[in-house]
Amino acid sequence: MRQGWRHFIHQALEGVADDPHVRMLRERLRSGGQVIRVHFEDSGQGPSYRVVLSLDRQLSELRVPHSESFTRWSLEAGVRMATLEDEVARFTLLLRERLQAVEAELGRSSLQGVLVEVVRELGPPKAQASLSGRQVHSLAEGRARLQAMRTVEGVITTLVKDLGTGLKYDEAQVAGTLDAVLERFVSASSAHQP
Fold it and tell me: Which tens digits make up the pLDDT trace of 107-147?
C-alpha cells in the first residue's frame, strides 16, 4: 500500500488528530477532572465552547474553539451543552458546516430550494411554519436534484443520530431540537437571500 492510502485509512478509522485545545481537555480529564457543563458561544472571534471543569473540588474554565476535533470528542463522550439553546446553536452550526459542500456545488439558492423541499417533506412544525409562503429556486428534476436531496437527508439523519445516539436525547427531545435547528437554519438562510 502507498503511504497516501494508509494515511487515508488511518484518518478514516481514527479521525482527525485532536487540536491542542482538545488535547489539553483530555489531559485534564485523565488527571481526574470532570466536565460540569459546556456552553456554546459565538463571539466576534468565532464559535467556541466554554467548558466548566471540576478537579479536586476546584472549578475551572477552559475555552475551546469550535473544531471537528471537539465535535467528535463531545459526541463520543456524550457531552451535552448546558442549555437547549446552546445545543440548538451548536447543531445549527454543524448543519451549516455539513451542507457547505452541497452549497459549493449547487449554489446557495439551489441548496435552499432542496432544503425547503426536504423540510416540507419531513414536516417539522417550526421549520415548516418559517417556510410558509416562501418561494425558492428549485433544481430541475434529474440526478443532481435527487443527489442533493439524498445528501441533505443524509446530513439531517446524521444530526438525528448525533442527538439520539451520541448525546442520548430521547425521541421527543431529538425531534424538538432538530426542528428548532432547521427553523433557525432556514430563517438565517432566508435572511441572506438577495
Answer: 888 888 888 888 888 888 888 787 766 555 565 567 777 88
Instruction: Report how far residue 146's alpha carbon sits from residue 149's, in angstroms, rounded to the nearest whole number.
Output: 5
The verdict on 135 and 58 lying in the same domain is no
pLDDT at 71: 94
- Please compute the mean of the pLDDT values over residues 22-31 and round it to a whole number: 92
Q: What distance in Å separates the CA atoms of residue 46 and residue 151, rounded to the nearest whole number? A: 27
Mean pLDDT of the chain: 87
Do 74 and 87 belong to one domain?
no
Residues 188, 21: Cα–Cα separation, whole Å: 29
The number of folded domains in the chain is 2
Give Cα separations from 18 to 55, 68, 99, 144 (angstroms): 22, 9, 23, 35
Give, for 90, the enclosing helix (H) or strand (E): helix 84-98
**pLDDT, position 47:** 97
Q: What domain range includes position 101?
A: 83-194
Radius of gyration over alpha carbons of the chain, in Å?
19
